[in-house]
Amino acid sequence: MPHRFTTPPRRGRTPSKPGAITGQVQSLTRGLSILEALAKVEGGITLTDVAQRVDLPPSTTHRLLSTLEKMGYVYQAGDLGLWYVGLQAFTVGAGFLANREFVAQSHVHMRRLMEQSGETANLAILDGTEAVFIAQVQCREMMRIVVKLGSRVPLHASGVGKAIFASLPDEQIDAILKVKGLPRITPHTIVAPETMWAALKVIRQRGYSFDDEEHAPGTRCVAASIYDEHAEPLGAISLAGPSSRLPDDRIRNMGPIVAHTAEELTRRLGGRWPHPY
Predict the structure, then answer these.
(1) Phi and psi dihedrals of 233, rounded to 5?
(2) Does the pLDDT of residue 112 top 90, yes or no?
(3) Residue 97: what pLDDT?
(4) Domain termination site, one of 90, 116, 150
């Protein structure tokens, strides 16, 4: 059992009630859980729905929502009194992005990629065993691929995910495969470990990944990792578009362009480009 270290109360002061610190941490955890629940839905949800999603009594949920509302992290609107993520939550999230220099630096490269290819450019980072989209420069085509910022994609079945996946050490890849497996998402998803290992080897050799409708039907994507000074992945940059506009020959032309852009950005950030292996 872990030890709990406490300090004796000062003279003249009433000792804190047992569990007071725990209660404060619990309230913070519950409040953040509510924010996460709101962020996962499109539009607003009712108090009852929020309470069910975070497994709390409605009275406790309402108290926490009221506190978050006063701080601007959530707000309530509409005839049904639906709850939504507030502006302050966006401000905090934007602060994270602003403090990651590679996000700001990437925009110039993403826009250039979009101009060169006519397709949408994306930027993603690794979070646990998934890739998270954090920036995008949309193309001007009527039919284009748009991803919601903050949305997650699996490492084994997406362009940015496979680029990052291939950049990880073999032992880390093996651990992820054992824990997460290779769940099928579309008929084109790679689900055999030996096929995935072969694909990762090719990505390492050529410096870019290729998603052939493995995450979303009708969508193709090429991506390449961006590295830090230790040659470890900071994230991945990609181009995505409808399969009808990205036949095999165009993918072969775009792949080296994306890889070259990722290498430029890596070096601009003081990183080390590890390819070729």
Answers:
(1) -70, 125
(2) yes
(3) 57
(4) 90
CA angle 199, 203, 204 (to 5 degrees): 120
Backbone angles phi, psi at 248, to 5 degrees: -55, -40
Radius of gyration of the chain (CA): 23
Closest CA to 148 of 131, 136, 166, 161: 136
> How many Cβ atoms sit within 10 Å of the Cβ of residue 40?
11
Q: Which residues pair with 76 in a beta bridge?
A: 83
Are 164 and 241 members of one domain? yes
Angle of CA points 111, 200, 134, to nearest 5°: 35
In a domain, 275, yes or no: no
Higher pLDDT, 7 or 118: 118
Q: Which residues contact 259 (CB under 8 A, 6 or more apart)?
A: 206, 207, 208, 224, 275
Cis preceding linkage at 9, omega within 30: no
Q: Is the pLDDT of residue 129 over 90?
A: no
**Among candidate residues 118, 43, 32, the one with its CA nearest the CA of residue 77:** 43
Domain count, the chain: 2
Q: Are residues 104 and 184 in the same domain?
A: yes
Residue type, 159: G
123: Cβ contacts below 8 Å, ≥ 6 apart: 103, 106, 110, 133, 134, 135, 136, 235, 236, 237, 238
Q: Residue 78 belongs to a domain with what CATH number?
A: 1.10.10.10
d(CA 201, CA 277): 9
Range of the domain at 168: 100-268
**Which tokens go with 98?**
């602003």
pLDDT above 50 for 68: yes
Q: Is the pLDDT of residue 21 over 50?
A: no
Would the pTM count as exceeding 0.70? no
Any idea what the CATH number is for the domain that residue 219 is in? Answer: 3.30.450.40
Q: Which two tokens stand for residue 150?
A: 């903050």
Give the type of residue at 216: A
Q: Report d(CA 29, CA 23) in Å as an integer.
A: 10
